[in-house]
Amino acid sequence: MPDISIWTDYFGIYMKGFGNTVAASVIALLGSFAIGTIIAVFRISSVKPLRWAGTAYVEFIRNIPLLLVIFVFYYGLPSIGITLSGFICGTIGLMVYTASFVAEAIRAGIMSVPAGQTEAARASGLSYTGTMRHVVLPQAIKIVIPPLSNQFINLVKNSSILGVFAGFDLMYYGDQVAGKTYATFDTYLFVALLYLVLTLPLSYAALRLERRLAGNG
Amino acid sequence: MDIAGAFSYHNLIFILKGFGITLWVAFVAIALSFVLGSIAGTLRYMRIPVVSRILGVLVELIRNLPLLLILFFTYFAMPDIGVKLGVMSSAIVGLAVFEAAMISEIVRSGLSSIPKGQVEAARSSGLSYLQAVWHIVLPQGLRRMVPPMVSQFISLLKDTSLAIVISLPELMHNAKIVIAQSYDYTIPILAIVAVLYFAVNYALSLAAKRLENKRI
């Protein structure tokens, strides 16, 4: 049986970390959605340099570890004179990293709408943005949502990497408590429960959403 | 920035040694997680009472935890309950368990994507259930699993970097040590580390694409 006092005595500390994990996840979620959408639009743009830039971003970032992305902000920026906290570097890193996956999901969704529809919309006088907004995006969103929700669950789990950079998240504080009490197993067990409190409902909601969209499609 | 200093013979060898460890750990963990994940995924597909249920719960729990936490478990928490593993074994076990959960889902959904009618047809032509799964479902399901499987392996290779928290002397760990020597080394070292990861992963993803096109 786990020693419950390890959970109750340090409850406030865990909660502080839990709050920061949620905060980092929400900020990175919004940011990665914004960046990912822009990159996706770049990738399907008819302007070649934009397309190249979008593809380069996605292919490069997707093929290197998140840890390395955060290293660039945490160790790379100070070497040119800019120092940011672990929380900020971690959150920006998560944003930049997740954006590449979001971009791919959005691009795949947009590509799934037949080109004929775009042509028809353009032929009936809609502008490019109008076509996107009224014809392509409303249909693409259905296909985009399942992979996107999976990416966001990954994002929450990946936010634990903030602990490596003293980012004051759940992982960081859990590690602190474990170091103080030496009750590593019980501490990490509680940390695991707290992560599950976040990720299990999200996974369940994602599955429900996916099934509902599949049903309507 | 001091490119010549950063890429001194000693530093380069040190970085490459780390890269070797990264590749080795990834290779062993891929092999283990493939075997474990295939078994778990097939068992879940076969809907064996109790066994499939328990596996299902385990897979869902593991999949919904951060890998970093699982590595903390295998290295820092297991000794607390009497199981002591070395750094390398902890990293491999943690990675393999986590990725096996992911792979079992890929296997299960790959198998489930084969129409049930095929199993019924195989059964009515005299094959046993196991034979039907082995000869009919698995060969077709495997093809559909290749693309998600390879992207999972790419994830695994990237995830080996998390073993930095248990001081496994892999690529990121060694890079961090070199960076600590001088601010001027940071950018060149991070650049070469990125190139190394990118080269392997991009090659893997290209190979996967080629395999995919060939099979279909």
TrEMBL record, chain A:
CDD domains: TM_PBP2
Domain ABC transmembrane type-1: start-end pairs: 18-206
InterPro entries, per database record: AA_ABC_transptr_permease_3TM, ArtM/GltK/GlnP/TcyL/YhdX-like, MetI-like, MetI-like_sf
Record's keyword annotation contains Nucleotidyltransferase: no
Sequence intervals crossing the membrane: 22-44, 56-76, 82-103, 152-173, 185-207
Keywords: Cell membrane, Membrane, Transmembrane, Transmembrane helix, Transport
Keyword flag Nucleotide-binding: no
Coiled coil: none
Entry's localization field: Cell membrane
Lineage top rank: taxon: Bacteria
Its membrane topology: Multi-pass membrane protein
Family: Belongs to the binding-protein-dependent transport system permease family.
Record-given protein name: ABC transporter permease subunit
Organism classification: Bacteria, Bacillati, Bacillota, Bacilli, Bacillales
UniProtKB/TrEMBL annotation, chain B:
Protein's UniProt name: ABC transporter permease subunit
Spans traversing the lipid bilayer: 21-43, 55-77, 83-103, 185-208
Keyword Membrane applies: yes
Residue ranges of every copy of the ABC transmembrane type-1 domain listed in the record: 19-208
Organism listed in the record: Paenibacillus glycinis
Cited PROSITE patterns: ABC_TM1
Keywords: Cell membrane, Membrane, Transmembrane, Transmembrane helix, Transport
Major location (coarse): membrane
NCBIfam families: HEQRo_perm_3TM
Classification via PANTHER family: INNER MEMBRANE AMINO-ACID ABC TRANSPORTER PERMEASE PROTEIN YHDY (PTHR30614:SF41), MEMBRANE COMPONENT OF AMINO ACID ABC TRANSPORTER (PTHR30614)
Similarity comment: Belongs to the binding-protein-dependent transport system permease family.
Superkingdom in the source lineage: Bacteria
Keyword Transmembrane helix: yes
Mode of membrane association: Multi-pass membrane protein
Protein localization: Cell membrane
